[in-house]
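Known limitations

Structure tokens in this collection are predictions and should be treated as such. Users comparing against experimental data should check residue numbering before alignment. To illustrate the layout, the record for ATP synthase gamma chain is reproduced below. The input appears on top and the generated tokens appear beneath it.
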Amino acid sequence: MANARDIRRRIKSVKNIQQITKAMKMVAAARLRRAQERAIASKPYTGKIREVLAHVALGARDAAHPLLAVRDINTVGHLVLSADKGLAGAYSSNLIKQVLPYASGKNNVRLITVGRKARDYFKRRGYRLDGEYTGFSEKPAYQDAVMLARLLSEKYQTGEYDEIYLTYTHFQSPINQTPTTIKLLPVAGLGEGEEQTKTEYIFEPSAHEVLSLLLPRYLETVIYGALLQSAASELGARMTAMGSATDNAQELISKLTLHYNKVRQATITSEITEIVAGAEALK
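Generated tokens:
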């Protein structure tokens, strides 16, 4: 049975941990607000550029573009957006579970990871990584999306990849994030449902040149939106996890304090009994 000194030490240790988790929760909450605002603000741009791209693709049907080309699938590229840090509950493990059905047991899948968690997991298990990027999972910049979009576009146009997927975590609320997988390339579904629209568009200099300019921008916008969603999801998961850890620490402190008081009372009672017994023995 632990003595009072050991219990006091454990209470002090739990209080120190509680201070750390509380501070991490507050930091994550402060960052989450900005990340959530950026993620929400990016959604209209992604929807609008796809709408414009659909009209342009409809007017440029006769002009093929490499990013729209559909080929026989030999090699698949998979971009995975994960976290650099832990202490975010099941955020990283849920994301990895989303990727495994696409990559497990398939020799033709090549992974490109963002974040240390996905990189370490897949590297330790012998998956082939064609790229690994770290350091910006919480604070992604548009240039990070541009770099990833150019890399994927180049690999697709050179035929190194015949199909490319993107897995990220879609932010819904601080306690609800959904791992999501979408097909990046070839860009499909453009122009569908536009046959009934009577609006006519005039493209300058030509629909093909406008399409060539918009497709890379569309790819950058989709990846940047996914980076922002992942950043908000990571911070939300960390805030929730640290909040739960703080509450659990408080509950443990209460139990330890009660146990300490019982041990202390038992010690005092035992000492009083010994004093009384000694006094009786001296009579």
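For this record: The two ends are 35 Å apart (CA to CA). The domain at 24-241 is CATH 3.40.1380.10 (Pyruvate Kinase; Chain: A, domain 1). Please report discrepancies through the issue tracker.
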